[in-house]
Amino acid sequence: MITSCPLSPSIRGSKARSAEVSNTKHFSVQSFITTIVLLVGLLCCKHVGDGHLLELERLLHTRIMAKHDMRMIEHQQRTRLTRTQNIARGHRDRVVNLMHRLDIAPRQYNERKERKQAQIDRLQAQIQHLGVSDITVSVEYFPSSMSRPSNPFAQGFRRVDLEGGAQHVVSTVAAWKAQAVQMSMTMDIIFFSAACCVVAASVISTIEVFLTEIAPFDLVDCIYLLLFGTKMMFLDAPVRFKGIVEAQAFIVKYFAFLTRFTGRGIWYIFLGTMTFATLWDNQIWYLGAVLLGFYVFLIGVFATVMGAMKSRKLDRVRQQIRRQNANSEQMFNAYARSSPQEGMTAEEFDLLSGQVAGISFRPDELTFVLNALCNEGRLGITQRDFCGWIAGPAILL
């Protein structure tokens, strides 16, 4: 029987160490292989992940571009829809305007026909008063369905028979227009003479007070009267020099009430009383105080009364338009044909007042009407000014 010999401790220790070394080497190789495999797997995953990321970025970019294209298409569609709505709204407004014109014609045809006939009767009476007997004046009315008036609110045309000596009618009307222009020039000269009276009285009183006594308050009063009179003399000057025109533009810009007939009359009433008080209270010239003061005062009273009458005449046109319940914007567009952007001219306003209210204005009256209705120094009545005049209170000329 064979028995194993017990190993010595040194031999057993060496075998254990060799086993540990072999196990360690086997573990190191296995770890290395595992690490290599993991690295290769990570590299593969990274490559695949980069591909997926690129594909995802392309998809996102495609989606963004698609949304942008959709927004552009929606914007274009909204723009086309807005343009179509504006065109439809414009057609609708034109249809409403046409319906309003067709509705207002039958209601006012008879009234305007009677008014025109009354005007012709007055004209015939004036012609007979002039002593002309071989003139025939006739008026023919054409319904709106048979003819197209140049003005949509007009219900007919007036035709004057030029046979049988009716040329005298034309010359008579031209003479009346020339008389109106001459009257306007006469009023300007009258106002200018009143301003000269104020300036003369102020110069005399200023020199007298300055040389004879020490009265600063009276001197200031005289200087103020001189300034006021000089301002009115520049405003009513019949000449048109460059300096005078510039002074008139300055006065019209900052003292607009003086351009109106009523305002000018009230101002001359004030200047007349001030002229009388300056010459009379300072014991300078009693006769001049009476003559100059009362002359300027009476001119002011006359201008105020005339301005009130002209204002009432203009207000009658406004009341007649309001009684018809007509659309003021449509009426403005119907009459302001020459230049709607610049506004309604004086001739167009006179045509409107004659056809709507049967009231006509002279050229000098139209000047005051435009001064009262136009804002910001314009040469025509804008739609805003016209609608504000219709809807607002009465205006003093």
From TrEMBL:
<dbReference type="Pfam" id="PF08507">
    <property type="entry name" value="COPI_assoc"/>
</dbReference>
<feature type="transmembrane region" description="Helical">
    <location>
        <begin position="189"/>
        <end position="211"/>
    </location>
</feature>
<protein>
    <submittedName>
        <fullName>Uncharacterized protein</fullName>
    </submittedName>
</protein>
<feature type="transmembrane region" description="Helical">
    <location>
        <begin position="286"/>
        <end position="309"/>
    </location>
</feature>
<feature type="transmembrane region" description="Helical">
    <location>
        <begin position="261"/>
        <end position="280"/>
    </location>
</feature>
<keyword id="KW-0812">Transmembrane</keyword>
<dbReference type="GO" id="GO:0016020">
    <property type="term" value="C:membrane"/>
</dbReference>
<feature type="region of interest" description="Disordered">
    <location>
        <begin position="1"/>
        <end position="20"/>
    </location>
</feature>
<keyword id="KW-1133">Transmembrane helix</keyword>
<dbReference type="InterPro" id="IPR013714">
    <property type="entry name" value="Golgi_TVP15"/>
</dbReference>
<keyword id="KW-0472">Membrane</keyword>
